[in-house]
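Supplementary Text 2. Reproducibility record for the structural model of the 513-residue chain.

All settings were left at their defaults, and a single model was retained for analysis rather than an ensemble. We include the record here because the model underlies the residue-level annotations in Supplementary Table 4.
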Amino acid sequence: MDLLIKSLNKNKIIKETNGSGLIENLCCDTRKEECLNRTCNLCFNKVVEYEEFRNDVPIKYFEWAAKTEKYSVNGIEKASKKTSKRELQGLPLHLITKLEKSLPRYFKHCLNIVQQYKSINELKKSLTPREVLIHMDFSENYITKFHEEVQARHFGGSPELITLHSSVSYFLDADTGTYKINSMCTISDYNKHDAQAIWAHIIPIIERLKDFTTDIDTIHFLTDSPSSQYRNRKIFFIISQLQQQFPNLNNVTWNYLESGHGKGAPDGIGAVIKRTADACVRFGQDVGTLEDFWNVIKAKMKNIEIHIITKKDIEDRKIPQNVNIFKGTMSVHQVLWSSNNLRMTFRKLSCFFCQNGIECSHGYHLGYMDVPQTIIELEEELLNDFLETNTTPEIINEITNSPEILNSTSQATHASLNCENQEGQSQNVIEANAKSTTTKVVKILSDVRLHWSNTPFYINTPSSSRTPPFKNFYALPLTKKQKIKTKTSIEMRIETDGTKNKENEDDDDFKIF
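Retained model, structure tokens:
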């Protein structure tokens, strides 16, 4: 919008130099909702004033545009979107028409900015001892540095990055009646910024607030609105799951600032932390790992709490892939959840007067969505579906008629018959193994206690590819002592039994183990 206005101003078609100046000329109060909605009785009929111009001479203007570029990696074609500033030409009347079509959307954008800031400021002033406002945002990843670096390190690719998720919590001290602020930054060397990572980053924030007060039952989250991070269906799922870990939680609201206007206190925390780390590097200290970074910030900054998030912490937060989608997600600026309602409420602007489950009386209502199932409920549903489609008789029938079981059973029986002429001790071992392989141990489904945390169970039946037990035995030549011991043992057996079995000449020199 500003690029288009600057081009028209440069060619002396309008007097305004930017979008803010244009809004000031069209509205009697740029912070009044009626003026930005074009419903004010004083300024609703104001229009943009244009100077005289020649429409036969094209003029230059710029605009930001996303372009899809294709590239090849190891013979595989891939595509990526790149946003660039491009130069265009057009007749003055074409630019004016384009400006007029963009004005309603620009007015709505300005209204969202003003209204969101206004609602958040009112919330800060009216917080109760049971409420907390958490303003958070991702900072740009910190690049690890050393005081002295070789050229390969300085210009090399893929340096180690550290993710910074900074937050500022506002709450009311019930004892003193004063507002308190807690600043925290969670850091990680696992550089994911998706919903799964956000879930892991907000848990330490809530747990730390429990140390200040245990009466909190309402949390108001405030973030910017990128769809890849905060404003998506997976975040809506996380909102409904927080009570599983924090049972005292009764109400949650997630509020989004207007796109491009989400800067605030968390960004200042991230900037101070990175600047402090860079200053330590300049004074001779190395910040090359996550541990180095944590030690530096912990020693230099006392007013900001640092907490490390591991890769396991992020991967343990499982989010189902089939989470319901709310139609109109890009227009959502507030999501409400409450423990006593089975629906979540979505609004186009934040309102803290109208509760969850009812339409906003201020006209901000967008729609409802059923509360997603909890992880435990999803596991129970999957178990019920499994039991319905996999009945016990079918499983037993499949096991007993398996050709692999029949083949392995016949092989084990054949092995026991071929080993009848072996020495008594080895023969007993082989027959015992063959007997154990012919016994099918079948667990029916009703005898097994299923739970998704259990390890998989299997039917204890032999496979056709299994090596017969007697192949695991091998012969070694007897030593002189072993021959004497064997001869003595045979003589003792003759005295007790009175009989002696005939043995081959090879048996005098070899013993079966």
